[in-house]
Amino acid sequence: MPRLGMEPIRKAALVEATIAEIGRAGSLDVTVAQIARRAGVSSALAHHYFGSKEQMFLAAMRHILSLYGAEVRGALALAEGPRDRLRAVIRASFAASSFRRETIGAWLNFYVLAQTVPEVQRLLRVYQHRICSNLRAPLRALAPERAEALAEGLAAMIDGVYLREVLGQRPPDGAQAAAMVLDYLDAQLGAGSNSGDAA
Amino acid sequence: MPRLGMEPIRKAALVEATIAEIGRAGSLDVTVAQIARRAGVSSALAHHYFGSKEQMFLAAMRHILSLYGAEVRGALALAEGPRDRLRAVIRASFAASSFRRETIGAWLNFYVLAQTVPEVQRLLRVYQHRICSNLRAPLRALAPERAEALAEGLAAMIDGVYLREVLGQRPPDGAQAAAMVLDYLDAQLGAGSNSGDAA
DNA sequence: TGGTTTATTGACTCGTCAATCAATAAAAGG
DNA sequence: CCTTTTATTGATTGACGAGTCAATAAACCA
Fold first, then answer.
1. Any keyword Iron (chains A, B) (predicted)?
2. Could you identify the residue whose CA is nearest to the C1' atom of nucleotide D7?
3. Residue B87, in any domain of the structure
């Protein structure tokens, strides 16, 4: 009994299911049938709406990146002063909405996919570029000379902490993960807790 | 015309070919036939010696880890004093033998495989444990309180730098990569260039 | 020499899976 | 109503690939 206007609902469900299945399997070796079943539809319908498995992966990735982007924007909106902005970006990177087993697993797999699918590579580069920008701006106010290098170091560390979580036996702990990066930040800027506050 | 004693030669060639193919494809979606062809043998022979594709992946991984281990041991043998030892471990992590496109690509894919194959997970954990140990020991002599946390931070950063290389447009530059991590180290310990030298 | 071990492969089996198609059915619209 | 559009699926196709097997052949051995 086909109600109309199902397309966005189905698509959203399939995107969620894609992420969940990749997270569960821990790899991109998930069949369209598995994804579709989890979303409660037939595999034919999944193809009908997305055209191909690759498009499903891309949609899933855009979804993850957009969640993360929202998290960052939300945190930045509340931050005042460069130091606070830096902390906001870092904390947002480990917020519960992104720092979850399944999302981390999916994210790792997208790095793999980036080596094959140009559009995935493009998206990941956009993400990396954005996170660097978000870090560089406030860093310029605190340590203009080293802003560029520090931003890249922080970004690398954030990615590295994610990566280590993949093998972690215990469930991800965003607060602790963020603490490690914040610690790096303080060491680089001089722990002086607020040296650049209140723009 | 079968010469005897081929087994180790074929195995070595197949291991190399496995790494090269994974690096080329940028994923684990490589067929045994592709690997075998690159090694100059039939796919049947590959199965004959390894039993399964999974065993080939495992052998490839052990090979990569053992190259890296050798690099670290070699560097440590020449180092004197804790600070120097730290530098040695970090530099070894970006030595030319490991820090190459194909190896980096393969390494990333092994992280993915670790989510599926317990033995791969075990091997990666051994690697992580060892790198942390190698860092923690000299750190204990320089900053006993923070040794544990710093070791994990450094390890995360090393992994993160590798990860970023996956998307890098320009070919990997080990020296520059190492510099970023060494910079973090100096910031954490106080740049005083040799505070812990000459044990 | 004849038997055993090692090396090596082509051909085949058996599954799996992405993608397609044709068919069913309910709503919308005139 | 009858048509068009949207939703939905079961069944099918076509390709591809891991792993197996039986056969060939050279080397070694007694």
1. no
2. A2
3. yes
